[in-house]
What we know:
The complex is a heterodimer of chains A (203) and B (253).
Chain A: H1 2-25, H2 31-44, H3 47-57, H4 67-92, H5 96-104, H6 109-139, H7 151-162, H8 166-198
Helix pairs in contact in A: 1-2, 1-4, 1-6, 2-4, 3-4, 4-6, 5-6, 6-8, 7-8
Chain B: E1 8-17, E2 20-30, E3 35-39, H1 46-53, E4 61-66, E5 69-70, E6 73-75, E7 81-83, H2 85-92, E8 95-98, H3 110-120, H4 126-139, H5 155-167, E9 173-177, H6 185-200, E10 204-208, H7 212-218, E11 221-226, E12 229-235, H8 236-241, H9 246-252
Parallel strand pairs in B: 3-10, 3-11, 8-9, 9-10
Antiparallel strand pairs in B: 1-2, 1-4, 4-5, 6-7, 11-12
Helix pairs in contact in B: 3-4, 3-5, 5-6
The structure holds adenosine-5'-triphosphate and magnesium ion (MG).
Amino acid sequence: xxxxxxxxxxxxxxxxxxxxxxxxxxRVAVLDGVLAGFVSLIRxxxxxxxxxxxxxxxxxxxxxLKPIPAAIVALTINxxxxxxxxxxxxxxxxxRDQREAAEACGMSEFQALRRVIFPxxxxxxxxxxxxxxxxxxxxxxxxAVIGVVEITxxxxxxxxxxxxxxxxxxxxxxxxxxLIAVLVRGQRYVERRVANRYGxxxx
Amino acid sequence: xxxxxxAISVKRLCKEFDGHEVLRDIDLDIPAGTTxxxxxxxxxxxxxxxxCLNWLEIPSSGAVFLDGRRVGGETNAAGKVTVxxxxxxxTRAKIGMVFQHFALWRHLTVxxxxxxxxxxxxxxxxxxxxxxxxxxxxxxxxxxxxxxxPHALSGGQKQRVAISRALAMxxxxxxxxxxxxxxxxxxxxxxxxxxxxxxxxxxxxxIVTHEMAFARDVSDTVVFMDGGQxxxxxxxxxxxxxxxxxxxxxxxx
Lengths: 203, 253
Ligand SMILES: Nc1ncnc2c1ncn2[C@@H]1O[C@H](COP(=O)(O)OP(=O)(O)OP(=O)(O)O)[C@@H](O)[C@H]1O
Ligand SMILES: [Mg+2]
């Protein structure tokens, strides 16, 4: 369950975060300000609070979500806010002359983003994004508050039933470590390939 | 012999940055097939002027024409600029640009750097573009580097790739902003040689440079700028033999 939820959360939040970042980077009027506020708000909100808000407060506004969709929405929104900051700093630090070279050739802004900027910034953002994903993983216990069974919750339940809390928690720790190790290994692998091929790690 | 319509025509171009006037009332015609060098002291507005030609810098007022067609969009009397993105992109496709620090795309090989824009922007078939790109790389002496990434090249080689990238678009004009200023001295020659052969081949070039010997020997026209204005426009030989303005004399000495 943990792996599943996190995978969906990551898969949804990275592109959404990129979209937010692009909107803010282009300084689209009004939207930019609104999103800046939204992102700071989410970043300042403890994850548990966000989960509770989505599950318990949204229904009173007429939006009712089952626990699992609610968990996914919470994970996605949270990670989207953080990842949009990562994308934005990558966009901001992208070499100006490479972008101008694209525009000077007659590429549209979208073409420049798709063909020149994105293929380079995803590589430099990989490290920060993986740490973000790791944090996302560690957030998953919070969704237990709305009754979704993830690793920690399962462990405490087993512990309570068997009166032997230690083994399940050790197992839970091992599982988290394994999930995070998989992510980090994946990151290292990609970074090494990028470095070998292009001769640089991150711009 | 010269085309009656100038390749580039600049009318009353002004540019200010936050109220600070950087270019004032620039008028200039650049005939097709000529090489023009822009000289002037640091901060005189040379780069800004060059970047206004393809609207990388949007002029505060005035107009630029490429082959008689207005570049970019409209600026009305009040200085309000409306940019037509699509038309601007179409015009830019006809204006090559070479940057001081090469600005190669680091995630693409030399060949891909050269073929990217013709394929993506001009929508030409990959096969054709690659054949043509190889011919250009051959011409600048880099055919053997086609499949390496930019990081593996020397500065001089990078700049020759950047020129090839511009040439692959079959541009009407190529703009150069100090193309040799970031190079080690021993590599300056190989880049200037490419530009010299382009000049011979009749390419229209506008070059901001500090290479006086090159400006004297290769360019047809010298434009001397100071304090955001054009102070002197003269045939290269004349300019170097006998500059008409006091400022230019001081600049040359
Ligand atoms: N983006 C900008 N914002 C504000 N001022 C600028 C900007 N770009 C250039 N300027 C100013 O405009 C003036 C002209 O700059 P420009 O770079 O065109 O000079 P230049 O002739 O190319 O100088 P150099 O030989 O040093 O390259 C300078 O005073 C510079 O500080
Ligand atoms: Mg300059």
